[in-house]
Design goal:
By secondary structure, the chain is an alpha/beta fold. Helix content is 40%, strand content 17%. The chain contains six helices and seven strands. The protein has a seven-stranded parallel beta sheet with strand order 4-3-2-1-5-6-7, with helices on both faces. The protein starts with a strand and ends in a 15-residue tail after the last helix. Its EC number is 3.2.2.n1. It is an enzyme of class 3 (hydrolase). It holds the Pfam family Lysine_decarbox.
Length: 192
């Protein structure tokens, strides 16, 4: 594994633990000799994880759509910055560059990116690990929703293993590095 894509909020959130865990994750990625791929912003949890990785001597690759965000949001101290035409190109390039995905707490953009890569995993488009840094139980409603979807027959029980939930960055990185994808099953129950 060479690179981890981190999805993260463009705000820091209301609890100091969100920011603390983002910084811890950035340092840890760098200390593991892994490169960070992320959305290219200098603000919010996005900026904190990038700054921490850079401060620890890591390589950080940002991917930012041209003309979508104000210039003052773009992180100018990155190892590499890729400017792309739109959000679809951004997500495609981030995914292409990544060997794994981790989501920090965030809002709609973070959730949209997360659900896309989990869906791709379910469809067999990739077999990369997807981890959620569950700071203060932030992602427990999603864990509950996944279990409910499986129990209700809208996804296979084996697909619960497509996502790693962990509260501490060090344990999450360890699980991501040692991830074994669950056996691929037919997602369509009527076609069995």
């Amino acid at each position: 594994m060479k690179r981890i894509c981190v999805y993260a909020g463009s705000n820091v959130g209301t609890k100091p633990e969100y920011e603390q865990k983002a910084i811890e994750l950035g340092r840890l990625i760098a200390s593991q000799q892994l490169e960070l791929v992320y959305g290219g912003s200098k603000i919010g949890l996005m900026g904190r994880v990038a700054d921490a990785a850079l401060a620890a001597g890591g390589k950080v690759i940002g991917v930012m759509p041209r003309n979508l965000f104000k210039g003052e949001m773009v992180h100018t101290g990155l190892t590499q910055l890729h400017e792309v035409g739109n959000m679809h190109e951004r997500k495609a390039l981030m995914s292409e560059l990544a060997d794994a995905y981790i989501a920090l707490p965030g809002g709609l953009g973070t959730l949209e990116e997360l659900f896309e890569v989990v869906s791709w995993s379910q469809l067999g488009i990739h077999k990369k690990p997807v981890g959620l840094l569950d700071v203060l139980g932030f992602y427990q409603p999603i864990a509950d929703m996944f279990r409910q979807a499986a129990d209700a027959g809208f996804m296979q029980q084996t697909n619960l293993g497509l996502v790693i939930f962990e509260e501490e960055p060090e344990r999450l990185i360890d699980k991501v590095l040692n991830y074994v994808p669950p056996a691929q099953t037919n997602k369509w129950s009527e076609l069995k």
